[in-house]
Design goal:
Elements (H helix, E strand, L loop, with lengths): L10 E5 L4 H12 L3 E6 L12 E5 L8 H12 L3 E3 L6 H13 L9 H8 L1 H10 L7 E2 L13 E5 L9 E3 L2 H10 L3 E5 L4 E9 L5 E12 L2 E8 L2 H14 L3 E9 L7 E7 L7 H5 L4 H9 L16 E3 L17
Parallel strand pairs: 1-2, 1-4, 2-3
Antiparallel strand pairs: 5-8, 6-7, 6-8, 9-10, 9-12, 10-11, 11-14, 12-13
Helix pairs in contact: 2-3, 4-5
Length: 332
């Protein structure tokens, strides 16, 4: 496939415009002069109402109709590239990568092993442990008897997201009960300290730039208030985590700064997509989206333009997208 210049406007399909990462990415691409096709499985997704976005609904990623829906859309609207903002779409997209390429659609996706490891908290723990990247101690339900007494615990789904079905407890007995209620659970040692996110971009040669922000207010797993920080150790650990699972492109790494504890930096998860609060990185001076588009079209990523100012503050809020009358699916 010929490598075009990214200076000219491109037609880019962004998935998941009902969530903050997809909506903010779509709007940022519009500001950069690109044409944006926005998709979501929910016909009420706010990004489908955003001015300037060509909106389409497609089947959920867990539907047998997803692949056919996506490819029909691709052949109809002919996007130049696709950027995914929904974790559970990634396995499907990796399988469809060849079909998308033959249809003229560029992607910048991790391989299936990286997608699986990032999406499965047990596999992620194993990968971090093998790479000697500090991460919370983690047990499967049949290993609860191995947990030391008086350990503060978190019970969560292995493949969950958005802080859904996450419960805290202090005893192994309580953890056993919660494992009966949480789908496909794992048990982790609870880590306390300052939550941080690293908005990262890893180029095709394996070089990573990271923009760190402290999460000051989190709602449903999404950073609503944050400030950029400079922490070389956290940057190093985030880069090591990405290298351990061989992720590429835009990557969101999350963790804790545990002042006074050892290890001081603990990595908790990776999402192979833009994070919900990536706009803070842009406001702090990092040319994150433009450089991601460069990498998407196999142009060099300019890491000199991914530096940033610490102390930049951002607050997200809920806004009214539309008050126009419209038909609501499922209502008479």
């Amino acid at each position: 496939m010929e490598t075009p210049s990214t200076e000219e406007p491109r037609r880019i399909l962004v998935t998941g415009v009902g969530g903050a990462p997809g909506l903010d990415l779509a709007l940022t691409l519009l500001k950069l002069g690109h044409e944006v096709i926005g998709t979501d499985s929910n016909p009420l997704a706010p990004g489908l109402l955003a001015p300037g976005i060509t909106a389409r609904t497609i089947a959920r990623a867990d539907s047998p109709l997803y692949a056919a829906d996506l490819m029909e859309l691709v052949h109809d609207l002919k996007p130049d590239a696709l950027m995914c903002c929904v974790e559970n779409e990634l396995p499907q997209l990796v399988h469809l990568r060849g079909h998308l390429e033959r249809a003229g659609v560029r992607t910048w996706l991790p391989d299936m092993a990286a997608v699986t490891t990032a999406g499965d908290k047990w596999e992620f723990h194993q990968a971090m442990f093998a790479a000697r990247v500090p991460t919370p101690k983690t047990w499967l339900p049949d290993q609860i008897d191995q947990i030391p007494e008086d350990t503060e615990l978190v019970v969560k789904p292995r493949r969950g997201q958005g802080a859904k079905n996450v419960h805290f407890c202090r005893t192994r007995e309580h953890a056993r009960v919660l494992c009966e209620l949480v789908p496909s659970p794992i048990v982790q040692q609870r880590v306390t300290g300052t939550e941080f996110t690293a908005d990262c971009l890893t180029d095709r040669g394996g070089r990573t730039s990271a923009i760190l922000r402290r999460r000051l207010m989190v709602q449903a797993g999404m950073s609503m208030v944050a400030v950029t920080i400079d922490d070389p150790e956290a940057t190093k650990r985030a880069t090591e985590a990405i290298r351990a699972i061989r992720a590429v492109g835009p990557v969101d790494v999350q963790g804790f700064l545990t002042e006074g504890a050892d290890p001081r930096v603990v990595i908790t998860e990776i999402n192979a997509r833009f994070a919900a609060g990536f706009l803070l990185s842009e406001e702090a001076g990092a040319d994150l989206v433009r450089q991601a588009v460069n990498g998407l079209f196999q142009q060099p990523v300019d890491h000199r333009r991914l530096t940033y100012r610490s102390g930049t503050f951002l607050t997200k809020y809920v806004a009214v997208m539309s008050t126009e009358p419209r038909a609501v699916p499922g209502t008479p």
